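This part of the workshop introduces the protein records we will be handling. The question running through the whole workshop is how a given chain folds. To make this concrete, we reproduce a full record directly below:
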Amino acid sequence: MIHFSLMVLFALLVALIFGVVGREGEQGRLRYGLKIFLEFVGVGFVLAWLLYFVPW
């Protein structure tokens, strides 16, 4: 569970920074930050699911 928590924390911090510097206007920043956060978490889940099937 610690890996998931760290992934979400990292995604939140990166989305916060990208949202602040990435778009103009308050509404654009919020939507862009939320989009980046969901993309980071989604890609993390997809990679975890794919790597589950890789034999070690």
Notes: The chain has a mean pLDDT of 92.
